Amino acid sequence: MEHGAPAADGPSPGVAGSDATSSGIASDGAAPQSGLSSDASPVADADATMLAAGSTAYAPRFVEEGRTLASLGLNDAEMASFWRIDAATLAAWQSAHPAFAASLQAGRDAADAAVERRLFERATGYTHPAQKIMQHGGQPVVVDYVERHPPDLASMIFWLKNRRPGRWRDKLDAKAEGKGGDEAASEAGDLADRLDRAWQRRHATARDGGDPR
Predict the structure, then answer these.
(1) Which of the residues 32, 60, 160, 191 could staple to 168 if both were Cys, CB 3.0 to 4.6 A apart?
(2) CB 151 within 8 A of CB 196
(3) How far is residue 40's CA from residue 22's CA, in Å, rounded to a whole number?
(4) Where are the alpha helices (DSSP H) in 55-180?
(5) pTM for this prediction
(6) In whole angstroms, what is the distance from residue 111 CA to residue 114 CA?
(7) Is residue 192 within 8 Å of 184, Cβ to Cβ?
């Protein structure tokens, strides 16, 4: 190093270290960090503040959130709790914002339809793939198979009472229908037997490689 030459890592002549920092340039050349992180979102911060404070302000994002919550089976009280509002505020939102009200109803309809499909499967019988873990030669073996569930009598009765109440209500009017409750119960049992036999025939035929119809 020649005599009088500034050191390579020293500050530039005429610029003090404190001036470098105050001018927005850190000593290592990097921009100084501000109080907000680079990925901070003012909208997200506002939403968090609103929820923390229990604000009743409506936000457009509630349309999609409401549809999801309703499709998961949450009722109005549970959704109000999610948004940290009361039931009256939720009702006011639905009245003031038709798109929001429609999204909640669409979610409810989707949840109800899913339950109806499961109930119908229970009433008529259904199959699904399954696995068993067995031992062969001292080693575990995973075996794929089809699990079969026959029709469920309670599900059939529940379905018919709600879909055809005139024929399947608990107490039939003997004068109007010409039959009593005992006869109706007997008919329900006969229907269950017929469906069970049909289910067994269908799957036996399918198992033998024939047409299940």
Answers:
(1) 160
(2) yes
(3) 24
(4) 62-71, 76-82, 87-96, 98-124, 153-163, 165-168, 174-177
(5) 0.52
(6) 5
(7) no
Question: Which residue from 119, 117, 124 is spatially nearest to 198, judged by alpha carbons?
Answer: 124
Alpha carbon distance 34, 119 (integer Å):
58
- How many angstroms from the chain centroid is the CA of residue 32? 44
Q: What is the pLDDT of residue 183?
A: 59
Cβ within 8 Å of residue 194, ≥6 positions away: none
pLDDT tens per residue across span 119-139: 999 999 999 999 999 988 889
CA distance linking residue 157 with residue 191, whole number of Å: 10
User: pLDDT, tens digit, for every residue of 69-78?
Assistant: 999 999 999 9
Which range among 33-42, 134-143, 197-206 has the greatest average pLDDT? 134-143
User: Is 54 in contact with 90 (CB distance < 8 Å)?
Assistant: no
